[in-house]
Amino acid sequence: MNSKQILELYDQQMRREITYPTTRREETPYVVRHISLEGIQNFVLYSSLSESNADDIIRGEIAYFEKLGRDVEWKVYNHDTPANLKARLAKYGFEVGEAEALMALDIENAPAFLLQSPKVPVRRITDPAQVDEILSVQRKVWAGEDYSDLGHQLKTDLQDRPEILSVYAVIMDGIPVSSAWIYYHPGTQFADLWGGATLPAYRGRGVYSSLLAARTQEARQRGFRFLTIDASPMSRPIVTKHGFMFLDHTYPCLLRLSKTE
């Protein structure tokens, strides 16, 4: 499949139709929104608006989430309509985040090295109690970021929904030096890649490629065809080298509505 065909399938399966165990999916004629059952993350995952109705629909969504008293993230893709959707959301108070590249790998056409034994040993993490240790890599690489919500999510999913999540780490010199995870979405052909940070002293040793190979092979064994990742400008050349195709740019647009003391 080419990139256009994969993007069309992604829109259908991962934006319009997908359900999550921790959200309530709500569909209107114009948007698909997800409301957190745990009061954490709420988002508009898909929209189909026109030049004539966009402002009215945006105001309606804002009113809906204002009534809930919850923040909402509207995930915008470059091919969404109208073409100036990001600017319209910004006009109503949404904070438009930096662009990320949606990249996809068709496992049927994956480079051979991703289907071979990893260059360095990779350990699968199944004990939720080890999540904090694994996330120490992210805390060291991205100092100042708060990983408490992510840690809670990974622990909860490993404990309650292990069939949708696999966590991997590379251990060297007795410490985690790189960690990454993959989320599976039953009923779709897609699995999402997350993490992948590596401590600076251990880069250039095939660590990232080994984590990617382990996840690619597991996804293939489980019958998933596509891997996707939201790549930053820094990571896009890396995943391109590993066979990923560019599908579109995405933008997280956040509206803060929750009541704080």
Q: What are the secondary-structure elements, in order, as H or E?
A: HEEEHEHEEEHHHEEEHEHE
CATH topology of the largest domain: Aminopeptidase
What is the molecular shape?
globular
Domains (count): 2
Given the helix and strand composition, which structural class is it? alpha+beta
Give the CATH H-level superfamily of the largest domain: Gcn5-related N-acetyltransferase (GNAT)
Q: What level of helicity do the residues show?
A: 25-40%
- Tell me, what is the CATH class of the largest domain? Alpha Beta
- Output the number of helix runs: 8
The number of strands is 12
Ranges where pLDDT stays below 50 over 5 or more residues in a row are: none
Overall average residue pLDDT: 95
Distance separating the two termini: 51 Å
Rg over CA atoms, rounded to whole Å, is 19 Å
Please state roughly what percent of the residues sit in beta strands, choosing from under 5%, 5-15%, 15-25%, 25-35%, 35-45% or over 45%. Answer: 25-35%
Record the SSE blueprint.
Blueprint: H1 3-16, E1 23-27, E2 31-36, E3 43-47, H2 54-68, E4 72-77, H3 85-91, E5 95-96, E6 100-106, E7 123-125, H4 131-134, H5 136-141, H6 148-160, E8 165-172, E9 175-184, E10 190-198, H7 207-221, E11 226-231, H8 236-241, E12 245-255
Parallel strand pairs: 3-4, 10-11
Antiparallel strand pairs: 1-2, 2-3, 4-12, 5-12, 6-11, 6-12, 7-8, 8-9, 9-10
